[in-house]
Design brief:
This protein is an alpha/beta fold. It has 4 helices and 5 strands. The longest helix is centred in the middle third of the chain and has 16 residues.
Length: 110
């Protein structure tokens, strides 16, 4: 898994690529929680994620819950088809705020 964070003012864009599985979900989780300590809004770009397992979903949920506790925005942007299938299967597509792309996510949190 590749992970990069770009901070644009009060918005942090976390871009993920590759597989998010048990081996990598802990690092993703820690980065999400760290960014939530600084940014007003976090956008997680999932367009490059080929596969996500339950540990990856759990890390996204923890980030979402932490953001809600702190009154911050947490948006998933451009989930790939495999990621969207998992979100729908777990019925989390109705829990997360999901944008078509990073630009739309930025507009949603502005």
């Amino acid at each position: 898994m590749e992970l990069s964070i770009v901070e644009e003012g009060e918005i942090a864009v976390v871009t993920l690529k590759g597989d998010i599985d048990l081996e990598h979900s802990g690092r993703m989780r820690q980065n999400l929680l760290d960014v939530l300590g600084k940014a007003r809004a976090v956008i997680v770009d999932l367009s490059g994620v080929a596969m996500i397992d339950s540990s990856g979903i759990a890390s996204l949920l923890e980030g979402f819950q932490e953001a809600r506790k702190k009154g911050k925005d947490f948006v998933l942007a451009a989930p790939s088809d495999p990621v969207m299938r998992v979100l729908k299967l777990a019925r989390l597509d109705t829990v997360f705020q999901i944008a078509d792309d990073v630009t739309a996510a930025k507009e949603a949190v502005s």
